[in-house]
Design goal:
This is Aminopeptidase N. This protein has an eight-stranded mixed beta sheet with strand order 6-5-9-3-2-12-15-14, with no helix packed on it. It is an alpha+beta fold. The structure holds tryptophan and zinc ion (ZN). The site of tryptophan (TRP) has 14 residues, from strand 20 and helix 2.
Length: about 850
């Protein structure tokens, strides 16, 4: 049977609701018994059948109002109960039995290491028991867990611990009650033996909250950073958003087997251990910052997600876009705002723009879904956050916060829609968002084309901006959007910033583009200006303006906005790659533009540029970043030309790079901005120097001297990218030191998978049998197979089709064991329209092979169907 799609337009309120659930869980890794007692209420007069979602367990018994009941029908996905003779309120009791140790899907109730945990978002609760498993059914939960005390000394669930006891047979039990109404996707249970880090937080109204972080035994020394991050997040949300925590306890559990990053279950977050555990020897600076931001993200969900949840899954961006926006602001307030912005824009421009150009293109609020797990996407999350950010740009912080307050006041305790949010923002600010709403329903990346004219005599400057959105796979017709364009003008000769004055006088720096074409006029412009367009990336669009190299270099030195500075250099890098790829295709010699090279030297010498920004500006875009400027991608050509650019800079700037390398040494490892920036700059320099005659010596000593994972990994990366003689020795040393630690080995696996070696696929295939590898662990799979397919385009897109064949083999296995992870891994294979005919044919062949599987999961089915259209 073919999986069926659901449409946003078909939403209907449920006929019944569940007000109260009591779960009695007899926990065991191989056979768990669940008795669920539901207080059901009929909402629609005369409703006769109650359809409860549920699958992948043994159904043992059903009682209605305490009496065995047989008027039901069971199919693959649900239990349909005839309730025509029942009153408007009745009680159901459902008994099921499950096998957590065999549940490799990591959804529902499953075993992770020695412990047992749950993952219910989006539709995992229905793998535990029958339920109205939809986010607009809000119930009060009470959960009693009984299990072996020796194996599972900790038994956790949402809310407050209200009772506990011991049984004669060595088992014990704990009962939990969550006072807040919540949808089933926020339910959680964890059982196991852990080390526990405890702390507390006093809220602004003076309540004390117990903070508990549970990690695998032996990892206590890696939990401190997560705890500090949690406290910073709690404080920040009070200060910037006025939002306070609402329970007396907040628990975080780190597990090794997890499909995503982390999960915001009420009062009991479950985390991928990758986003909890950190100490200097095992975690990089990037890991530290990611941990802080994921901890904050899940914490912020307590208001934007839990207290106010989603009416239906099409509204996912209501909680995710907003919560990503909030975690971005948190990181920006605590660290460098421009560095955070640059990082987010890099992700958006590569991965999200690519998604919009793919068969999976969808608006931030999708219209049609087959498998909900497929819509936890960069579009819903990152583009969703950009849409919130644009509202923030249009309203300003004060009105935005006023809008937030109204949104919270109106929707607390409810399941809301994106429209509820926009409407609150609109009413609080009195700013018309009618046209702006199209960002929620339109997919695709708008392209802005900008032309300008300057009249020296009248001192008038005109900007002509037009917008165009290409049709996407899901939507042929596109409407004009309301696009905020942040602008600054700089004098071409003086380099001075020119004030923006229109016919009404001085104006703000954000233009509102609402039509297909618009002209903006500025007066008293005393010299020919160069426009710095889309500062801070004020909208998620592509922009084209015909800058000369001279103009870009001019802006590079005078523009005040750090994001724009970085953006100018991206434009220069992109141009350099394009021109040389053309030369390469023509069989001509490649050459690096001398003016650009000079500008890079000036940048290296410029002591007024902040260290962190300098590191970002000197970072050569990745192959996947370069690729996004092409409709048809030549992965092999891009790799060759990028390599040429890298070596050209290394050779021409060796002295400067070496000087910066030496100047930016740090003392003993500390996670502070100053040192992080220094390490970043120093390691960027190393990545170039590895290609010079100093490479061997510098990289070996860098590895040896490193007292932290950031530097260790930088040395390893440099050694493998430059294929230095020392690489095998360093790789072996790292492996010997860390093979017991999966999280650390992930760095090593990813590094191996992205090696430039011609035989990298053979290396990867061999590593699939490495003792530290495990196909059932999503982190391992992403590190080895995911990195190969998505971060080594040259090898994955090998013209003999070997990369595709390898991925398909892995997907065939994952289709059965973990379809959610399989469907993420297949992404590079469904973007076939971006490649030449030869590759397209091979990719299609791989997809067709998968399509022919007789037990193809709906996760893969949905993507393959779209790709093969
Ligand atoms: N809501 C989670 C978050 O934003 C995402 C998530 C975690 C998830 N685990 C999942 C989504 C499993 C789908 C399936 O942080
Ligand atoms: Zn989230």
């Amino acid at each position: 049977m073919q999986p069926k799609a659901k449409f946003r337009k078909d939403y209907q309120a449920p006929d019944f609701t569940v007000n109260d659930i009591y779960l009695d869980i007899q926990l065991d890794a191989d056979r768990t018994f669940v008795t669920s007692t539901l207080k059901v209420e009929r909402k629609k007069v005369g409703a006769k059948t109650l359809r409860l979602d549920g699958h992948s367990f043994d159904f043992l018994a059903l009682k209605v109002n305490g009496v065995a009941y047989l008027q039901y029908q069971k199919d693959d996905e649900a239990l349909t109960i005839d309730v025509s003779d029942l009153a408007d309120q009745f009680e159901l009791q459902i008994e099921t039995a499950l096998n957590p140790s065999q549940n490799t899907s990591l959804q529902g109730l499953y075993q992770s290491g020695e412990g047992i945990c749950t993952q219910c978002e989006a539709e995992g609760f229905r793998q535990i028991t029958y339920m109205l498993d939809r986010p607009d059914v809000l119930a009060k939960y009470r959960t009693k867990i009984t299990a072996s005390k020796a194996k599972y000394p900790y038994l956790l669930s949402n809310g407050n611990r209200i009772a506990q006891g011991e049984l004669a047979d060595g088992r014990h039990w704990v009962e939990w009650e969550d006072p807040f109404f919540k949808p089933s996707y926020l339910f959680a249970l964890v059982a196991g033996d852990f080390d526990l880090l405890e702390d507390k937080f006093i809220t602004k109204s003076g309540r004390e909250v117990a903070l508990e972080i549970y990690v695998d035994r032996g990892n206590l020394d890696r939990a401190g950073w997560a705890m500090e991050s949690l406290k910073r997040a709690m404080k920040w949300d009070e200060e910037r958003f006025g939002l306070e925590y609402d329970l007396d306890i907040y628990m975080i559990v780190a597990v090794d087997f997890f499909n995503m990053g982390a999960m915001e279950n009420k009062g009991l977050n479950v985390f991928n251990s990758k986003f909890v555990l950190a100490k200097p020897e095992t975690a990089t600076d990037e890991d530290y910052l990611n941990i802080e931001s994921v901890i904050a993200h899940e914490y912020f969900h307590n208001w934007t997600g839990n207290r106010i949840t989603c009416r239906d899954w099409f509204q996912l961006s209501l909680k995710e876009g907003l919560t990503v926006f909030r975690d971005q602001e948190f990181t920006s307030d605590l660290w460098s705002r421009s560095a955070k912005r640059i990082e987010d824009v890099r992700l958006l421009r590569t991965v999200q723009f690519a998604e919009d150009a793919s068969p999976m293109a969808h608006p931030i609020r999708p219209e049609k879904v087959i498998e909900m797990n497929n819509f936890y996407t960069v579009t819903v999350y990152e583009k969703g956050a950009e849409v919130i950010r644009m509202i923030h740009t249009l309203l300003g912080e004060e009105l935005f916060q006023k809008g937030m307050q109204l949104y919270v006041a109106e929707n607390d305790g409810k399941a809301a829609t994106c429209e509820d949010f926009v409407s609150a923002m609109e009413r609080a600010s009195n700013i018309d968002l009618t046209q702006f709403r199209r960002w929620y329903s339109q997919s695709g990346t708008p392209e802005l084309t900008v032309r300008d004219e300057y009249d020296e005599n009248t001192q008038c400057y005109r900007l002509h901006i037009s917008q165009f959105t290409e049709p996407t796979a899901d939507q042929l017709e596109k409407l004009n959007l309301h696009i905020p364009v942040k602008l600054a003008l700089y004098g071409e000769t003086s380099g001075q910033k020119i004030p923006l004055i229109d016919e009404n006088g001085s104006v703000g720096d954000v233009l509102s583009l609402t039509q297909a074409q618009q002209t903006f006029e500025f007066y008293h412009v005393s010299e020919r200006p160069i426009p710095a367009l889309l500062a801070d990336f004020s909208a998620p669009v592509r922009l084209s303006y015909d800058y000369t190299i001279a103009q870009l270099i001019r802006l590079l030195t005078c523009v005040e906005n750090d994001f724009s500075r970085w953006d100018m250099i991206q434009t220069l890098f992109n141009r350099e790659l394009r021109e040389n790829l053309f030369n390469y295709h023509q069989g001509d010699l490649m050459q690096f533009n001398m003016d650009f090279l000079e500008a890079l030297k000036v940048l290296m010498d410029d002591e007024n540029v902040d260290t962190g920004l300098k590191a970002l500006m000197l970072t050569l875009p990745k192959e996947t970043e370069f690729a996004e400027q092409f409709k048809i991608i030549d992965p092999q050509g891009i790799a060759v030309v990028r390599q040429y650019l890298l070596e050209s800079i290394a050779t021409a700037c060796q002295d400067r790079l070496f000087r910066l390398y030496q100047e930016n040494r740090c003392g003993a490892y500390r996670v502070v901005a100053e040192d992080i920036d220094k390490r970043a700059l120093r390691n960027v320099c190393l990545s170039y120097l590895a290609f010079t005659d100093q490479g061997e010596e510098l990289v070996s000593s860098h590895y040896e001297e490193a007292d932290n994972m950031t530097d260790t990994l930088a040395a390893l990366i440099a050694a493998t990218k430059a294929q230095l003689a020392c690489q095998e020795e360093l790789l072996a040393d790292f492996e010997a030191q860390w093979s017991h630690d999966g999280l650390v080995m992930d760095k090593w696996f990813a590094l191996q998978a992205t090696r430039p070696d011609d035989d990298v696929l053979a290396i990867v295939e061999k590593l699939m049998a490495h003792p530290s590898f495990n196909l059932n662990n999503p982190n391992r799979v992403r590190a080895l197979v995911g990195a190969f397919a998505s971060q080594n385009p040259k090898a994955f897109h090998a013209v003999d089709g070997s990369g595709y064949r390898f991925l398909v083999e892995v997907l065939i296995k994952l289709n059965e064991s973990n379809p959610q992870v399989a469907a993420r891994l297949i992404e590079p294979l469904i973007k076939l329209s971006r490649y030449d005919n030869q590759r397209q044919t091979l990719m299609r062949r791989g997809l067709e092979r998968l399509k022919g599987l007789d037990n193809l999961a709906r996760d893969l089915f949905e993507k393959i169907e779209k790709a093969l259209l």
